Amino acid sequence: MTSGSDPIAALAVLGDESRRRLLDFVRRARRPVTREEASAAVGISRKLAAFHLDKLVASGLLQSRHGGHGPRRVGRTPKVYEPTPHTLSLSLPPRRHDLLASLLTEALTAQKQGENAQEAALRVARKRGEAVGAEARSGDIMATLESLGFEPAEEGAGRTVLHNCPFHPVAAQAPDLICGMNQAFLSGCLAASGHSETTAVLTPQPGICCVELRTDR
User: Fold this and answer.
1) pTM, rounded to two decimals
2) In the chain, what are the domains?
3) How many CA atoms lie less than 13 Å away from 54 in the CB half-sphere?
């Protein structure tokens, strides 16, 4: 979920059938919905509908405000609910196809004269990695890689294995392009975060990321 909400917690909220039906009703309404409308549509009491709707708001699946049309309660305009603009996405193991799509789109639209498509993709990936690395400069680079879904693990002798490829299975379809972009992205991230002693090396192996991090000791 792009809002930063926990997608697992959000999905847990949807374990209740009434909440799923309320969410579906609000999303299909294409307009702000009052508690009265939602309770009538789902066939539960207004009080119970309000409880479930507020749970959906707390999880980031809906948003609410006062300002709807309907009977006033305690001098206020009715509370209304509508979908959030955020996207809920959950993948185990983690996948970042949104990041890959963004990189490829930027490469396609920002290709320089005399630069082929793959060169543009590698340049854009490196630049984006540098931006991520700059933000992580004062923090833990391993935590940053973990948040991106790489699942890094130090294996000794200066080796850090990335046990997950966030770009799989697309990487398997075009390894030269996607794995190269992955290496460029991680190289930029390492350089900008102050880890110049660590290198992103292409080491394709089945079941894990094609890039391994190696640190000079």
Assistant:
1) 0.71
2) 7-83 (1.10.10.10), 97-215 (3.30.1380)
3) 7
